[in-house]
Amino acid sequence: MPDGVLPVLDVRDLTTVFHTRSGDLHAVNSVSFDLHAGELLGVVGESGSGKSVTMMALIGLLPSPPAVVRSGQVLFGGHDLLTVDKDTLRAIRGKRIGFVFQDPMTSLNPVFTVGFQIMEPLRKHMGLNKSAAWTRAAELLHLVGIPDATQRLKDYPHQFSGGMRQRVMIAMALACDPEVLIADEPTTALDVTIQAQILELIKALREKSGMAIIWITHDLGVIAGIADRVIVMYGGQVVEQAPVAELFANPRHPYTRALLKTVPSVHGQRAARLKVIEGQPPILRSAPDACVFLPRCAHGFGRCAAENPQRRAVGVGHDLACHWDGETEDG
Amino acid sequence: MVDTLAEPPPPLVQVRNLTMHFPVHGGLLQRRVGAIKAVDGVTFDIHRGETLGLVGESGCGKTTCGRAILRLYELTGGSVHIGGTNIAEATPDQLRKLRPAMQMVFQDPLASLNPRMTVASIIGEPLKEHTRLDKTERLARIHELMDQVGLNHDFANRYPHEFSGGQRQRIGIARALALNPQFIVCDEPIAALDVSIQAQVVNLLEDLQDRLGLTYLFISHDLSMVRHIADRVAVMYLGRIVELAPRESLYSDPRHPYTRALLSAVPEPDPVLAARRNRMILTGDVPSPAHPPEGCNFCTRCPQVMDICTTIDPEFREVEPGRFVACHLLTEPKNNQQGSLL
Ligand SMILES: Nc1ncnc2c1ncn2[C@@H]1O[C@H](COP(=O)(O)OP(=O)(O)OP(=O)(O)O)[C@@H](O)[C@H]1O
Ligand SMILES: Nc1ncnc2c1ncn2[C@@H]1O[C@H](COP(=O)(O)OP(=O)(O)OP(=O)(O)O)[C@@H](O)[C@H]1O
Ligand SMILES: [Mg+2]
Ligand SMILES: [Mg+2]
User: Fold this and answer.
1) Which of B63, B112, B262 to mutate to test the pocket of ligand 2 (most atoms within 8 A of CB)?
2) What residues of chain A lie within 8 A of the CB of B201, using their CB?
3) How many CB atoms lie within 10 A of CB A60?
4) B59–A274 CB contact, under 8 Å
5) Better-scored residue on pLDDT, B291 or B6
6) Does residue B338 have a pLDDT over 60?
7) Which of residues 284-313 of B touch A (CB under 8 A)?
8) What count of CB pairs under 8 Å joins A to B?
């Protein structure tokens, strides 16, 4: 059991590059963060900002080639997951670290029933026999709100709706009571009521077993309701980190500010046209030597082009990678 | 065409009592032992140039409904008229002729784009199949479509996995637009995108509607986006539509208890408000569409359930002009007119 002072998971300086036909792509650039027992870390950021690649890299699931993990350490349970032997890693993955992938259809096998796929980690990691695993699988499927769970264990993934497939993934990730759950956009296909139910389930597990959670999402409403701390990614880097209330009350990075302004609401005035963050996300062919947000930033100045800003503390638990002092009101 | 002189134009899409059941097999012989009633008798219209939002819980039948309307399934029952033709009974030949006018943007962009085809060939495929354009004309049209959805021409020879989520979604939209459709079913077109790109895609759909007069069925579980884009909204629960109303009335004055619960559960993008919010969390499990409850489908979870609800299925009827609700709470005894949609 983690002692509550040391983080359960400590990611340091993780850098990942893809070698593609059209050249190198620097998808993750020197990313660092930690995670404590019972904590829920929210991860937000633009599409393509490296959220999924970071998580896949840290549990050794990136296809290589084309991916190369250039540097970094991932400390978990006394191991560095980037250098640990394959068997140890396999034993940790799926048992001590649960993972919900962003795209359920590419990670669920279409030729096996849903039941078979939920039972697999139970039999492999928990040593359950077939009938115990079946019972537990039905229980898990029921927990994530799928009606008629026992009957539906016999179905194949294509017979489930988009949101039901996502919930199967969640059930599989929770099957072995992991110490760390990494959930990559786990509720994108879920409506608010079922999403609320899943969030309650996750909160309960966190309180009961001290499970620590990384929750990647573009839904700032979910982040506001469930996260303790948030990291904001842009261009393969962590550009801001803060406790959740602080991030919403006092966002400092120009990207974070723009992001918070784009959200439509069910309350208040309906906007005639939705706000977008103008410009295109960067395609990094080499390690960034200038601020990655500069081309879209309203506050850029000379230094931003000359030097990629490093993360600096600006408050309790609040840091950001930006040269702008943030004091001048933004427009 | 029917004679419609002096009458308002008929709706482009008329769905009546649409039913789509999937068989359930069981036992040693894998015999048919029941059915998943994914869509169980839905009725609505979509007017020309209108966006109808379709919302509801995961698994309630939204995708099935959208696919059935375009006859991507053989319907179990009911009718779907698009521009006057009953799609449900159209012959394969008639369907082929109708296909160009009705398109779908699929829920999962990556799974619906062939990974071995370049973007140009994906967008060009419907052109090849349904038009007589030669190669140069086709390429010109492909470029025009890429412009419309804001994709750089230089990307024409790239493969889907080389794009970001938002770009992939736009490839799907460009493909859907290729044949100048009148009607597009957009199934969760923005669910996987970050907020800024969501906004970009929604703005694009609105621009295209303004310019080309398109009609959309916009399927989504994101109530704030639906509020933004839809003119009217239909709320689905367990294979049925429980409420259908113009956008503003639905959001300011929801009538069905399920709609109220849905709206109260929307997460608030502000931790202070989120902590103060009084959420109405529905209790009880969602019933299985294979065994819907007696009476009203929502009766097992309704906070205002009455005796009648567990025995009699409430009729989907017009409670005031333009507002349809299926709920016994709204049945006034004096009302004796036939609550029909037509
Ligand atoms: N197999 C691959 N080959 C080449 N490039 C890749 C590959 N997988 C990911 N990338 C690129 O790496 C970058 C980061 O991708 P990643 O999937 O981490 O983004 P993300 O932040 O998770 O975005 P989203 O919100 O869309 O899921 C993107 O530019 C993407 O195109
Ligand atoms: N091909 C199929 N065979 C059997 N059952 C199916 C099939 N397709 C869908 N279903 C079932 O029909 C019901 C409705 O599914 P549908 O995909 O329409 O839901 P949805 O409202 O789109 O949900 P989501 O928001 O999760 O995408 C679900 O119970 C699903 O399992
Ligand atoms: Mg991702
Ligand atoms: Mg669906």
Assistant:
1) B63
2) none
3) 17
4) no
5) B291
6) no
7) 285-291
8) 174
What is the SS3 assignment for A217? coil
Residue B215 tokens read as 């009609």
The values of phi and psi at residue B189, to 5°, are: -70, -10
CA atoms within 13 A on the CB side of A268: 6
Provide CB contacts within 8 A for A190, sequence distance 6+: A163, A166, A167, A198, B58, B221
Please check whether residue A93 is in contact with residue A125, taking contact to mean a CB–CB distance below 8 angstroms.
Answer: no
Cis peptide before B269 (omega within 30 of 0): no
- Strand A40-45 and strand A212-216: the pairing is parallel
Query: Is omega for the bond preceding B293 within 30 degrees of 0, making it cis?
Result: no
Please name the residues in contact with B134: beta carbons below 8 A apart, sequence gap of 6 or more.
none
- In the predicted structure, residue A103 carries a pLDDT above the cut 80: no
Residue of chain B whose alpha carbon sits nearest to that of A229: B271
End-to-end CA distance of chain B: 18
Structure tokens at A304: 């931003």
CB count within 10 Å of CB B73 equals 14
Q: Rounded CA gap, B225 and B236, in Å?
A: 17
* A146, A164 Cβ separation under 8 angstroms: yes
Of B107, B227, B267, the CB nearest to A221: B267
Give the nearest ligand 1 atom to A25 CA.
Answer: 5
In angstroms and rounded to an integer, the radius of gyration of the C-alpha atoms of chain B is 21
Residue range B254-282: mean pLDDT, rounded: 79
Between A329 and A98, the more confident residue is: A98
- Other C-beta atoms within 10 Å of A301: how many? 12
Would you state the pLDDT for residue B197?
Answer: 76
* Interval between CA B39 and ligand 2 midpoint (Å): 9
As a whole number, mean pLDDT of residues A194-212 equals 87
CA dihedral B239, B240, B243, B246 (to 10 degrees): 70
The two most distant CA atoms of chain A are separated, in Å, by 66
Q: Which helix (H) or strand (E) holds A35?
A: strand A23-35
| pLDDT tens-digit series, residues B59-75 | 899 999 999 999 999 99
Query: Ligand 2: which residue has its CA nearest to atom 31?
Result: A160
CB–CB of A276 and B200 under 8 A?
yes
Report CA-CA distances (Å) from B198 to A86, A105, A168, B167, B195: 39, 22, 26, 11, 5
Which of chain A's residues have a Cβ under 8 Å away from the Cβ of B283? Answer: none
CA dihedral B68, A162, B48, B167 (to 10 degrees): -130
Q: What is the pLDDT of residue B192?
A: 67
Rounded CA-CA distance A41/A171 in Å is 20
Q: What is the ipTM of this complex?
A: 0.77
Tell me, using a 6 A CB cutoff, whether residue A27 lines ligand 1: yes
CA distance B105 to B148: 16
For residue A255, how far is its CA from the centre of ligand 4 (angstroms)?
Answer: 32
* A45 close to ligand 1 (CB < 6 Angstrom): yes
